[in-house]
Amino acid sequence: MEAIILIGFMGAGKTTISQEVAKILDCQRVDMDDVLVERIGSISEFFKNHGEAAFRKHETNLLKEAINQSSVIATGGGVILQEENQDVLADKKVIYLKTNPDVLIDRIRNDEENIRPNATNKADSEIKELFYSRKNLYEKLAKITVETSHRCPQEIANEIIQQLA
Ligand code: S3P
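# shikimate-3-phosphate complex -> structure
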C-alpha cells in the first residue's frame, strides 16, 4: 500500500481520522507529532529552546522516512510550509482535511492535551491569519479534499476510503 498522508491545519482532526482510516484499512499509522515528541521532547519546549526552524528540520527528516512506509500518516499542521516537503508530497496520496477556521479555533481552545506553540497563546485573529496564509498550500498539495467541520471521524474516514478507491 502506498502511504496515505493527511494534511490540514491544527485542529483539523488529522490524528483522530488517521486512527479511523488505519483501523478500516488494517494498516500501520504514523503520527508525526507523536514520533517527534519521542525524538525531541515536548514540541512547545523545543520551540522555546531551539526555535521553529530547528523543529521544521526534524519534521522534514521524519516525513522523508515515513513517506515510503505502507501507512496512514498524520502530519503536523505546518508540514506543508517547507519547499522540500512540498516536493516530497507532490506525487503522493495527500488528503486535505478542510475545516472552517472558527471550528478549528474552538477545537484548539478545547484541546487540553496539546499545547501548540503556533496557536495556543495566540489571539483568534492571529490563528485565522495563520490559517489563511497556509490555506492555498493545503489546497494545492491535496489530491483529495474532505470537509471535516461538522462531521464525525467515522464518516470522514469512510469518505476518504471511498474517494481513494
Ligand atoms: C504545528 C502544528 C502541530 C505541531 C507543531 C506545529 C503548526 O501539529 O506540529 O505544534 O505549525 O501548524 P498539529 O497540526 O497536529 O496540531
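# post-check
The pocket of shikimate-3-phosphate is lined by residues 10, 14, 33, 43, 76-78, 114, 116-118 (CB under 6 Å).
The two ends are 12 Å apart (CA to CA).
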